């Protein structure tokens, strides 16, 4: 995002797929769980901040 590379670029799409695969490996793919995580991010935006304080 900081590099202003369009989301539709193949390299960005590959990174998104890789991230989502890792996310699903860790969290699972249960729709109820994913919904709870989305709600938590919406209610607590600080959860989106990385361990070094980066978004």
UniProtKB/TrEMBL annotation:
Top-level taxon: Bacteria
Protein name per Swiss-Prot or TrEMBL: Uncharacterized protein
Organism (species): Iodobacter fluviatilis
């Amino acid at each position: 995002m900081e590099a202003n590379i369009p989301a539709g670029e193949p390299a960005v799409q590959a990174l998104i797929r890789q991230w989502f695969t890792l996310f699903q490996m860790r969290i699972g793919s249960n729709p109820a769980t994913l919904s709870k995580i989305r709600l938590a991010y919406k209610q607590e935006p600080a959860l989106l901040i990385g361990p070094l304080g980066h978004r």
